[in-house]
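It is worth pausing here to work through a concrete case rather than discussing structure prediction in the abstract. The textbook approach is simple: state the sequence, then state the predicted structure, then interpret. We follow exactly that order.
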Amino acid sequence: MWVTKSYNDKFQQEYKIENKLHEIKGERHTLELFNSEAFGQIALLDEGMLLQNLLCVQSEFLAHILACSHKEPRRVLIAGSFNLEIAFEFLRHEDLSVDFLQFDLKVLESLIGFLPHYKQVLESPRFTLIPQKSEEFLAQNREESKAHYDIILFLDSAQKAQDYQELLDAKGILMIKSPQILLETLEVKKLLESLEDFRVKMPCFAPLSPLQDCYIFASKAYHPTADIQLQRADMLEGLQYYHANLHESAFVLPKAIKTALFGVARN
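Step two, the predicted structure:
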């Protein structure tokens, strides 16, 4: 048996599974859980796929790329994800507090056995679960002129990342999901063009990740490699994936891609 992760109508990947464990339908999202000899369990969600044995790849990559690119981050917003392990990695940084925007609690609660630090994250005094729909959350924060996040990680490709820009601090960083950089370069270019208000806009990817997920790092002030906080990155302990050299390599693109994105990507 195989489970398929589709990127578009021309590209997909298949993963061998042993059997299907559960299917959970939430208010907007559906979660399917499978047993896998290679990956422990596989979680298939609308936002993509999570591999239980390789959760460290996405979680460490996203959290520490962002936290180690900002000089003094204090507040983080994670939106459009069920992966609480990203929050766990952010919380390794003692000065950070994390807001996690996710209203589909039925699906989130179904991952309690899949995510190894589920309970630890929810019990952290520096973690806040916000069970609101994004539209309600954005409207409320606009009306109350609440400020604002140093880092926003937005992983819902079905919604507009631009809606979250005004929630960023003046030196804030936004990270969003991107189309596959190598296979959908023109779509990446369009997405970069839509992020008009950022001084730095750089595609990146998690090196050696089997999921092939790609992202765009957009910052109003900080450059992810020129401003990397090396001491902070080097002091992190107990990691399996992230380190300072990998941080820098995540932004290295093939020559043809650099040429195609010249003038649109800002670095």
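Step three, interpretation. The CA atoms of residues 5 and 13 lie 5 Å apart. Residues 55-260 form a domain with the Rossmann fold fold (CATH 3.40.50.150).
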